[in-house]
Amino acid sequence: MRPARGEPPSTLPFLPDLRRRILFLRNCKMATERTYIMVKPDGVERRLTGEIIRRFENRGLTLVGLKMLIPTRETAEKHYAVHNTKPFFGELVDFVTSGPVVAMVWEGPDAVKLTRQMIGATKPADALPGTIRGDFTCDMLLNLIHGSDAPETAAEEIALWFGENGLAR
Q: For residue 10, is it within any domain?
């Protein structure tokens, strides 16, 4: 499109298209899901909570629940119930209840899969650089962060940690 006679040519001709795309994406009813993320006591102690939040926000996810607390043993045992027959269960529960955690709920398209990719593998040697674990941890137990592994698990974890009315929306 050419400018009208006497008007200077636009230096950024793509802006109208970009604005339309942004408006479309904001108004689009894209399928979103929620996921539960917890910064564990080692991440809180190392003051990595802000960096972790920044990474999720920069990726375009929306924070809809946030609280800092020291988990009760009962809550931690319910949370890790899937591991209750494994030899590390007691140590895991002791660790998660040893100090404050930051419990969060994030929302966005494919939030569970996206956050799991951003978190990285549980085993430090398998966690790629650029992931949260790949950049900040080298210990299997002290692995900074928990993220739901499936939408169904996320729903259970959100209910456990936030209840029915604990989210902003």
A: no
The phi, psi pair for 47, rounded to 5°, reads 60, 45
Report the SS3 class of residue 75. helix
* Catalytic site residue from 48, 136, 146, 154: 146
Give the range of the structural domain holding residue 60, as residue numbers without chain letter. 30-162
Q: Does a structural domain hold residue 1?
A: no
Return the structure tokens found at 18. 């970009």
Query: How far is 129 from 10, CA to CA, in rounded Å?
Result: 41
Q: Does residue 146 carry a catalytic annotation? A: yes
Give the dihedral sign, CA 151/155/158/160: negative
| Pairwise CA distance, residues 139 & 40, whole Å | 13
Question: What's the angle, vertex CA 57, arms to CA 149 and CA 18, rounded to 5?
Answer: 115
DSSP label at 105? E
Categorize the per-residue pLDDT at 19 as very low, low, confident or very high, splitting at 50, 70 and 90: low
**Nearest 5°: phi and psi at 107?**
-130, 140
Q: Of the candidates 46, 93, 47, 43, which has an alpha carbon nearest to the alpha carbon of residue 71?
A: 93
Q: Indicate the average pLDDT of the chain.
A: 89
* In the block, residue with structure tokens 């994030």: 106
What is the token pair recorded at 11?
A: 């230096």
Q: Can you read off the two tokens belonging to residue 142?
A: 């002290």
Is 14 within the bounds of a domain?
A: no
Mean pLDDT of the region 32-54: 97
